[in-house]
Amino acid sequence: MTLLELVDGEYQPLVPAAAGTRFVMREPFGFEVDPAELLDE
């Protein structure tokens, strides 16, 4: 999972997270998740 930010007309990776780690973003709203929680086992 990756949060991208638009910079000068191009998307740049801002916050990456793999399964087993926490994905944390603060803008445009606060959100946290472990990508593994989104996978169907």
Structure description:
- With 41 residues, the chain is mainly beta.
- The strands form two sheets. A two-stranded antiparallel ribbon has the order 1-2. The protein has a two-stranded antiparallel ribbon with strand order 3-4.
- It is built from no helices and four strands.
- The relative contact order is 0.27.
Layout of secondary structure:
Elements: E1 2-7, E2 10-16, E3 23-25, E4 31-33
Antiparallel strand pairs: 1-2, 3-4
Could you tell me the radius of gyration in angstroms? 12 Å
Q: For the largest sheet, list the strands in their spatial order.
A: 1-2
Which structural class matches the secondary elements? mainly beta
Low-confidence stretches: none
Can you give the helix content as a percent range? under 10%
Q: DSSP strand (E) fraction? A: over 45%
Number of helices: 0
Number of strands: 4
Q: Mean pLDDT, as a whole number? A: 89
N-C termini distance: 18 Å
Largest sheet: 2 strands, antiparallel
Shape: elongated
The sequence of SSEs as H and E is: EEEE
